[in-house]
Amino acid sequence: LSWRPGAAGGADDREATAGEEGGGFSRRERVRVVAFTAIPASLLLGVTNYVLTDIASLPLFWVIPLALYLGTFIYAFGRATREAPMWAGRVLALCSLFIMVALAAEATTPAALLIPLHLLVFTLGSLLCHLRVASLAPGPKHLPQFYVAVSLGGALGGIVTLLAPPLLTAR
């Protein structure tokens, strides 16, 4: 697979550039798609890991964040209009503030409050990112590159979540 059609130059390169101007899929958009798909993937792994190790050990809990992740993805790509609701960003910011306070205080109880709060922040963050990715979807000609970028972002989010914490907290 090639990120850039006609990388060797010539007529194909000029056609690719002309195609990008008319609804194509530029390098900048590819980077955005990778970033906006890496964030929810990282959040999925992070919230699942945090809830199961620090708040409560619940059997089959991983199904809930995964269902929310897939639900936001389906919702974002199933809509005709792909703009984020105005309230979603505000609620995300407010709930994130509560989460930061709880993390700073190292609170792990009450689980009945903390788990839904973490899941709400995860869901809203995933929704906003998935809506942004859906709005960046190119025309049919560039969909293979788009899906490669989506896959790469998901893998990158998982790798960062796996490798960053041990490297940042090594003593």
Question: What does this protein structure show overall?
Answer:
The chain is an all-alpha fold and 171 residues long. It is 74% helix and 0% strand. It has six helices and no strands. The chain has helices spanning 11-21, 27-55, 63-78, 86-104, 111-135, 143-169. The termini are far apart. The model is unreliable at 1-22 (pLDDT under 50).
Count the helices. How many? Answer: 6
Q: Structural class, please?
A: mainly alpha
Taking the sheet with the most strands, its summary is: none
Averaging pLDDT over every residue, what do you get? 83
Query: In terms of per-residue confidence, which ranges show pLDDT below 50 for 5 or more consecutive residues?
Result: 1-22
Task: List SSEs in N-to-C order.
Answer: HHHHHH
Number of strands: 0
Helix percentage range: over 70%
Q: How much strand?
A: under 5%
The span between the termini is: 41 Å
Basic shape: globular
Radius of gyration: 19 Å
Summarize the structure.
With 171 residues, the chain is an all-alpha fold. It contains six helices and no strands.
What's the structural blueprint in terms of helices and strands?
Layout: H1 11-21, H2 27-55, H3 63-78, H4 86-104, H5 111-135, H6 143-169
Helix pairs in contact: 2-5, 2-6, 3-5, 4-5
